[in-house]
């Protein structure tokens, strides 16, 4: 039985969401083009499915055409010259450059253009002659201009385009809609605006900001305007001149259309004495109000340990009524941050007044930062701090997440200039001891919340050996970050089933006894390991390496794990390796250490802590992705020739070798260029193309894969 073909109208509705470009994207005048980040397969692949799809999809594909490179312009001009019918389909054309003589061919064979987008970001290397000649061949209804932000380029090509555009506008008798990029007079605006005003045909004007309204109206008041659209801002953002204009001429105010989000209008109550839910049973009232207050007061914690700086608006909710106070307190205290011993004392006092709150706290971040004060009475002693920490944690019986705030506290001190960058510790574990908690406090945490806590980040200080039995209490812990050099006592009091739910283990700092202790556990759920400590984890990997699918290692551990000890051999299922650079390293110093003796000799190879050795012939073949993670603020390679040269050495030497399954290399210190000029200059694009020949994708800090452009 032969199949009945679908009607073209139905096929068109199926393909339209994939092939059509929304007018919002087409008219976007942002500094970075919305088409700069397009990735994935080209939409033109729909045309090669079958003849029916080719017939229906062709008009949809050519309806809106963005041109972002000379290669695209060349390809389109050839297609239109060979098949003149294709140009009849083009209704919207977006041109983001000059693109030489090809633009003349495109405009010659596209007479039905109704919407024209032109970028005035023209470099001296652009050639606008073709575009200038072609503008006289079309007659659009809408003109959208995009001009530079903060500065505008002045060169011969730019001057030619402005002159040709002004001359064409005078002849475009269909032009009645203009998207203006200006909010004041500029060098570029004079010729164009004069031509538009002289034509006296505009009835719709769009401007970017509300503060440019008075200027825009004064320029175009000779035109028969029906509407002035404002993209950003509301009536409240108008300057005094605009407000005065509205007051003098209400008809002008009626023309203006703001893109404001409509606000819900709440009608006044017909009964001022009305009380919600007054006739409902008290349990029903409490249940409904509690759910409402949950959304108003309690917000899920993010992955980072940060302090909530918006406590005062939340506090105001509790002051509405006694009912709100009673029902809202558990939600208000669901997430708590304690930054000094005095806050711990205050919280303990609150828990004494409301004992049930201790079981309602779900997330607690505990950080002690020493404060300098002229009054000695304000300073707390370490003993006093340990007392309040122990007392506070003993009252928490329902914690799901706990962090001692070590790294978060360090970063906050950096932001407030208490610590300068050169003073940063050389190891993540070498944090200020005052950010850690004492052993008694940690023991209190284990006893009170061990059966509920799922995320734990702890740095424990102790002068005496810690009993390994303390980990028997953590029954449901899933993510565990240990950053303490405290020693553990010998003995078999820890259960082999301790920490059985841990899936992700971070070891920021550890003593050898801690790793020995972990080796005695089964850890059946373990999948991810982040190891940043200076202590060698060989014994740990011998026991648990087979479970690992992801591993994070510090730059200093590469040599130990992947060269000398060959610890990776114990991780046959490892699919992802992340190499983490501490912030005190620069790109040049890292790359120099990696390749300073290349070509490597047998004498020096063992001494190099090299990322290169991740690609040795003996590496685990299961690895599919390698991430080089460094913070861009310290290691931005885009504007430093020395960094670019160092990265060039790295990529020249990077070979697949034993990484048979490697498909992605991510470098977290750059982002892809967004225009043709920057793409041509970018070394990262060149390196991405080189890696693609090995079937390896290079991705930037956001994880975006580079997609080859038409050349």
Taken as a percent bin, the fraction of beta residues is 5-15%
Could you estimate the helical fraction of the residues in percent?
Answer: 25-40%
CA(first)-CA(last) distance = 46 Å
Largest sheet: 12 strands, parallel
Total number of strands: 22
As for the CATH topology of the domain at 8-202, it is: Leucine-rich repeat, LRR (right-handed beta-alpha superhelix)
Order of neighbouring strands in the sheet with most strands? 9-10-11-13-15-16-17-18-19-20-21-22
CATH architecture of the domain at 8-202: Alpha-Beta Horseshoe
**Mass-distribution shape:** globular
Low-confidence stretches: 301-310, 369-380, 406-434, 583-612, 632-637
Oligomer: single chain
Structural class: alpha/beta
Helical run tally:
26
Computed over alpha carbons, the radius of gyration is 33 Å
Q: What is the top-level CATH class of the domain at 8-202?
A: Alpha Beta
How confident is the prediction overall: mean pLDDT? Answer: 77
Protein name: F-box domain-containing protein
Report on the structure:
The structure is a single chain. The chain is α/β, with parallel strands linked by helices. Among the domains are: 8-202, Leucine-rich repeat, LRR (right-handed beta-alpha superhelix); 549-711, no CATH class. The chain contains 26 helices and 22 strands. The protein has a twelve-stranded parallel sheet with strand order 9-10-11-13-15-16-17-18-19-20-21-22. It has an eight-stranded parallel sheet with strand order 1-2-3-4-5-6-7-8. α16 (341-353) links the parallel β9 (335-338) and β10 (363-366). Mean pLDDT is 77; it is low at 301-310, 369-380, 406-434, 583-612 and 632-637. This is F-box domain-containing protein.
């Amino acid at each position: 039985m032969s199949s009945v073909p679908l009607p073209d109208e139905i096929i068109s509705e199926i393909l339209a969401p994939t092939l059509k470009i929304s007018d919002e994207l087409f008219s976007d005048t942002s500094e970075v083009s919305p088409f700069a980040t397009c990735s994935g397969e080209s939409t033109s692949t729909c045309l090669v499915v079958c003849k029916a799809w080719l017939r229906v999809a062709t008009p949809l594909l050519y309806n809106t055409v963005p041109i972002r490179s000379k290669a695209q312009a060349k390809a389109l001009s050839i297609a239109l010259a060979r098949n003149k019918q294709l140009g009849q389909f083009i209704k919207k054309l977006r041109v983001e450059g000059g693109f030489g003589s090809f633009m003349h061919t495109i405009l010659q064979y596209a007479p039905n253009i109704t919407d024209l987008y032109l970028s005035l970001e023209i470099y001296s290397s652009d050639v606008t002659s073709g575009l200038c000649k072609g503008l006289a061949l079309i007659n659009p209804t809408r003109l959208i201009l995009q001009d530079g932000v903060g500065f505008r380029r002045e060169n011969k090509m730019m001057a030619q385009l402005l002159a040709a555009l002004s001359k064409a506008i005078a002849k475009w008798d269909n032009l009645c809609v203009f998207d203006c990029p200006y909010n004041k007079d500029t060098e570029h605006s004079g010729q164009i605006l004069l031509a538009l005003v002289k034509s006296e045909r505009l009835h719709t004007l769009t401007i970017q900001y509300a503060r440019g309204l008075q200027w825009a109206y004064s320029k175009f008041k000779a035109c028969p305007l029906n509407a002035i659209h404002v993209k950003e801002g509301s009536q409240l953002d108008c300057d005094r001149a605009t407000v005065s204009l509205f007051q003098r001429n209400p008809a002008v105010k009626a023309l203006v259309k703001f893109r404001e989000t409509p606000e819900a209008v709440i009608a006044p109550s017909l009964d001022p004495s009305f009380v919600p839910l007054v006739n409902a049973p008290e349990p029903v009232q409490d249940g409904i109000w509690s759910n409402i207050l949950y959304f108003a007061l309690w917000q899920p914690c993010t992955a980072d340990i940060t302090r909530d700086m918006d406590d005062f608006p939340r506090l105001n909710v509790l002051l509405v009524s006694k009912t709100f106070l009673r029902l809202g307190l558990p939600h208000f205290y669901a997430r708590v941050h304690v930054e000094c011993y005095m806050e711990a004392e205050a919280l303990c006092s609150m828990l004494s007044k409301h004992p049930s709150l201790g079981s309602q706290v779900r997330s607690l971040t505990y950080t002690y930062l020493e404060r300098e004060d002229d009054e000695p009475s304000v300073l707390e002693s370490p003993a006093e701090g340990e007392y309040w920490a122990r007392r506070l944690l003993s009252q928490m019986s329902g914690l799901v997440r706990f962090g001692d705030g070590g790294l978060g506290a360090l970063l906050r001190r950096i932001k407030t200039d208490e610590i300068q960058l050169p003073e940063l510790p050389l190891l993540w574990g070498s944090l200020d001891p005052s950010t850690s908690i004492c052993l008694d406090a940690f023991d209190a945490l284990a006893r009170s919340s061990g059966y509920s806590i799922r995320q734990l980040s702890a740095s424990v200080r102790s002068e005496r050996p810690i009993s390994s039995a303390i980990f028997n209490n953590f029954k449901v812990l899933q993510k565990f970050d240990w950053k303490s050099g405290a020693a553990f006592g010998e003995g078999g009091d820890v259960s082999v089933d301790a920490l059985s739910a841990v899936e992700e283990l971070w070891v920021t700092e550890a003593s050898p006894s801690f790793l020995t202790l972990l080796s005695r556990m089964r850890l059946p759920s373990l999948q991810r390991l982040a190891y940043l400590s200076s202590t060698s984890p060989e014994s740990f990997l011998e026991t648990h390496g087979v479970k690992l699918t992801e591993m994070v290692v510090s730059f200093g551990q590469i040599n130990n794990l992947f060269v000398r000890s060959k610890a990776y051999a114990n991780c046959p299922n490892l699919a992802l390796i992340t190499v983490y650079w501490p912030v005190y390293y620069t790109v040049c110093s890292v790359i120099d250490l990696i390749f300073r003796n290349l070509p490597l000799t047998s004498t020096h190879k063992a001494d190099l802590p090299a990322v290169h050795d991740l690609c040795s012939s003996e590496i685990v073949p299961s690895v599919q992705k390698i991430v080089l993670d460094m913070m861009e603020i310290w290691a931005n390679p885009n504007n430093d020739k020395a960094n670019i040269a160092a990265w060039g050495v790295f990529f020249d030497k990077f070979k697949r070798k034993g990484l048979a399954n490697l498909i992605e290399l991510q470098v977290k210190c750059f982002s892809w260029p967004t225009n043709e000029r920057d793409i041509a200059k970018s070394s990262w694009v060149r390196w991405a193309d080189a890696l693609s020949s090995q079937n390896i994708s290079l991705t930037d800090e956001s994880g975006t894969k580079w997609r080859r452009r038409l050349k």
